[in-house]
Design a protein that fits this description.
The structure holds two protein chains of two kinds. Chain A has a single domain, classed as Orthogonal Bundle (Arp2/3 complex 21 kDa subunit ARPC3). Chain A is globular. Chain A has helices spanning 2-19, 34-46, 48-66, 72-85, 97-119, 127-166. Chain A contains six helices and no strands. Helices cover 73% and strands 0% of the residues of chain A. Chain B is built from six helices and twelve strands. The chains are: A mainly alpha, B alpha+beta.
């Protein structure tokens, strides 16, 4: 119960930051994707189910407030979290390099997916413009923010979340 | 323990189930019968107040920052502003005369009122689209303040966008620079109709593109004023969009395309005005 509350709180804070503070960050007009960091990091640290659940709720929040189609972002975030969960048992999560790479790749995949599904299908063909002006800055910025927040997420995870999942009470989030 | 085991789904089954659930939601939201407004409303109760709060802290900090501005600078600015005030008062008196004349002539021609006379509600932008692909935002006024879907949003005397969703204390607005936005517009001088299309690739340059301008006499030039057209079903007539920057004829020699510089500074937008008159209402009157 406490773990679920903390997870909900994390998603909620990430969404608030993403829609307010992060949009005002300096350097570029592009904002880093904190919700994706959250999804990938928890999928990476705790496995497929955790990534799936976190991704679903992150995406659903975006859908509810900014999406045209309910379920669109939920689906994409959910799948990204799920796929990243596969790496959970393969890599050690106490080092920052691996999650950075995963978050970078995930953000790129996410951007390309959004481009294909929402822009290419409407006849916006100039992929490289979008690549250099939206995708690449977003990926770089997101990876940079990962550097700052991953430690924090890691500590939170092992302080409050993963400790609970090891116990017998709530093993549905373990693989 | 044993009962819990029963619910221990395999993750691949879970992902398949959830994917189908999401796809179902997408299909449901495509059909207009299904509405998520109640869910949205509930979630907004735990999100919107905090967005408002964060926004207020931000405003407080900027005001704090500006409070420390150099005094000398301020006195200098004051001087120039004073000069400007003098000039403007003079100009204003002339304009007031013109205004009277305009009103007289308008009465004479029984023309439509300009949008200056519509009822407006001031609102503050409290949050923006989390991604980088679209340009929509949420304002801190909703149906409690009489805001409804399809109301026009303006700022600095120019068109900002249109209300797409409304909650009790919030509303989301799609701006005209958003990639999915289309606005029917016309050139103020010649009344030629065109469509202003938001385009992400033009956003950095601070321009919007317009297409399908029918201008047989090639009269439209750079610098002409572009306003919302009379044929639009959602946008009130005559709201300033911007000034034409470039016109090029299309290869079909029938229409023109080009770019327009919006009169609103979308990068530094904090407060907007929502016109509470809907186009449909206005036509019904």
């Amino acid at each position: 119960m406490r773990r679920n509350l903390i997870l909900a709180l994390l998603i909620w804070i990430a969404f608030l930051l993403q829609t307010t503070v992060f949009q005002l960050l300096p350097f570029t007009t592009v904002a880093p994707n904190l919700l994706l960091i959250l999804t990938v990091a928890f999928g990476f640290m705790n496995g497929k189910k955790m990534g799936l659940v976190i991704g679903f709720f992150c995406g659903l929040l975006i859908d509810l407030f900014y999406g045209d189609l309910i379920g669109f972002y939920a689906l994409i975030y959910m799948l990204i979290g799920y796929v990243n969960g596969f790496s959970c048992s393969v890599f050690y999560d106490d080092e920052i390099k691996v999650p950075m790479v995963f978050i970078g790749i995930s953000d790129l995949v996410y951007s390309v997916l959004i481009y294909i599904l929402q822009f290419l299908l409407r006849g916006r063909l100039d992929f490289f413009y979008y690549f250099y002006h939206i995708m690449l800055p977003e990926v770089v910025y997101t990876v940079f923010i990962t550097l700052l927040v991953y430690r924090l997420l890691y500590r939170l995870n092992y302080r409050f979340i993963a400790t609970d999942t090891r116990g017998s009470s709530a093993n549905w989030l373990r693989r | 323990m044993k009962r819990r085991k029963k619910y221990d789904l395999k993750s691949k089954h879970l992902v398949a189930g959830m994917s189908i659930f999401c796809l179902g939601l997408i299909v449901l939201s495509l059909s207009s019968r299904f509405s998520v407004a109640p869910v949205r409303e509930v979630v907004s109760y735990v999100v919107v107040p905090f967005q408002k709060g964060i926004n207020q802290v931000g405003n407080w900090m900027t005001s704090l920052q500006s409070g420390f501005a150099d005094v000398q600078e301020l006195s200098k600015e004051n001087e120039t502003l004073q000069k400007q005030v003098d000039e403007l008062t003079e100009e204003n008196s002339i304009l007031a005369q013109n205004q009277e004349e305009l009103a007289r002539l308008q009465a004479l021609y029984d023309m439509d009122k300009s949008y200056v006379q519509y009822d407006k509600v001031g609102a503050e932008i409290i949050s923006k689209d989390p991604g980088n692909w679209y340009n929509s935002f949420i304002i801190n006024k909703g149906s409690d303040d009489g805001i409804a879907v399809d109301m026009n949003v303006i700022a600095d005397g120019g068109l900002v966008g249109i209300v797409t969703e409304v909650g009790r204390e919030w509303a989301s607005v799609r701006s005209i620079i958003d990639d999915s936005s289309n606005v029917s517009a016309m050139v103020a001088s010649t009344s030629d109709i065109c469509t202003v299309v938001g385009d992400l690739t033009m956003m950095d340059e601070g321009k919007i593109s317009f297409i399908q301008l029918k201008d047989d006499d090639n009269k439209v030039q750079a610098g002409d004023k572009l306003v919302t057209s009379n044929v639009s079903s959602k946008f009130l007539e005559g709201i300033l969009i911007g000034y034409i920057d470039e016109v090029t004829p299309d290869s079909n020699n029938l229409t023109h395309t080009g770019y327009v510089v919006p009169s609103v500074d979308f990068k530094h937008l904090h407060e907007v005005l929502v016109i509470t008159t809907l186009k449909q209402q206005k036509e019904a009157e």
